[in-house]
């Protein structure tokens, strides 16, 4: 499958930008727009397409080398990679945290296996060190797609938002790839809402990339990655009722919760135009 053909046939690109309305935004005299990367594709959700695209180009040049990457049992990143392998007929390998698991442990793993991904389940200790018995000649994609190649894929996202001319961009942060990419290609203030306790790692990346100027918000981690709280669940539900847009609590829920809180606290100057990136994350078993 040709990548351009795939993009025009299977993906919704460019993804739409919509304005959100809320009395709070009026009171604070800000406008809020949402970049609907969640609509790009139901499986290659949101920023996962952006981060993996350049790897597909690379893999097409070396079709005998498998695309290898890492993730947890519910990783959106590996799920997207497995689907891409299936669609582009490229070999993929998923190295999964937890040697107690197997391909039938959840419907996502099962689906990934059925799409042809080779699955390896390793201990948490080995996972930390990214030690795997099967890393052979391959195209290695770091966990979550964090790399120069992953960041370069965000340029396409930036090209699609320039016309909107926002004064601020806000996005959820896992590895930070999306936030770093936006900051690199669009010279505008970027706010990254952390979703896990990895500020030290993000700062390390920041130094390595010689990137500075992103505002990292750690106030909305809510304990730890994916920890559920009724506040967040209610927020996501009322957000959906108000805007008819689904968000999930792990990434985009925390980001929008943070955005509302910041607007309430008047963290944005009068007249700001804020663009929030809907990075996707709504995935259902296929
Ligand atoms: C993976 C993911 C992220 C994290 O993106 P990074 O580029 O790693 O910071 C954010 N939102 C959603 C919905 C995701 O699935």
Detailed description of the structure:
By secondary structure, the chain is an alpha/beta fold. 41% of the residues lie in helices and 16% in strands. The protein is built from 12 helices and 10 strands. It has helices at 3-10, 23-27, 47-61, 76-88, 107-114, 124-129, 148-152, 154-161, 177-185, 199-209, 230-243, 249-264; strands at 17-20, 31-35, 67-71, 92-97, 118-122, 139-141, 168-173, 190-194, 215-217, 273-277. The chain has a 6-stranded mixed beta sheet with strand order 1-2-10-7-8-9, with helices on both faces. The protein has a 4-stranded parallel beta sheet with strand order 5-4-3-6. Strand 7, helix 9 and strand 8 form a beta-alpha-beta unit. Helix 4 packs parallel to helix 5, helix 8 packs across helix 9 and helix 11 packs across helix 12. It is globular and about 55 Å long. The protein binds pyridoxal-5'-phosphate. The site of pyridoxal-5'-phosphate has 19 residues, from helix 4, strand 7, helix 9 and helix 12.
């Amino acid at each position: 499958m040709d990548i351009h053909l795939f993009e025009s046939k299977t993906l919704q690109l460019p993804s739409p930008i919509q304005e959100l309305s809320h009395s709070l935004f009026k009171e604070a005299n800000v406008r809020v727009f949402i970049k609907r990367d969640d609509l790009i594709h139901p499986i290659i959700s949101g920023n996962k397409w952006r981060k993996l695209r350049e790897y597909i180009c690379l893999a097409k040049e070396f079709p005998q080398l498998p695309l290898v990457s890492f993730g947890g049992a519910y990783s959106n990143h590996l799920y997207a990679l497995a689907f891409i392998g299936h669609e582009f007929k490229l070999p993929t390998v998923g190295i999964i945290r937890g040697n107690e698991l197997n391909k039938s442990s959840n419907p996502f793993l099962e689906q990934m296996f059925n799409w042809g991904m080779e699955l390896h389940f390793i201990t948490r200790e080995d996972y930390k060190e990214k030690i795997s018995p099967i890393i052979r000649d391959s195209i290695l994609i770091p966990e979550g797609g964090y790399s120069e190649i992953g960041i370069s894929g965000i340029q396409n996202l930036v090209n699609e938002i320039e016309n909107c001319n926002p004064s601020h961009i806000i996005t959820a942060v896992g590895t930070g790839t999306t936030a770093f990419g936006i900051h690199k290609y669009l010279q505008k203030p970027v706010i990254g809402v952390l979703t896990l306790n990895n500020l030290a790692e993000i700062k390390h990346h920041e130094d390595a990339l010689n990137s500075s100027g992103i505002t990292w918000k750690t106030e909305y981690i809510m304990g730890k990655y994916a920890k559920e709280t009724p506040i967040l669940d209610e927020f996501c539900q009322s957000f959906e009722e108000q805007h008819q847009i689904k968000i999930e609590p792990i990434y985009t829920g925390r980001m929008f919760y943070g955005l509302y809180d910041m607007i309430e606290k008047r963290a944005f100057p009068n007249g700001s135009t804020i663009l929030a990136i809907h990075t996707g994350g709504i995935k259902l078993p296929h």
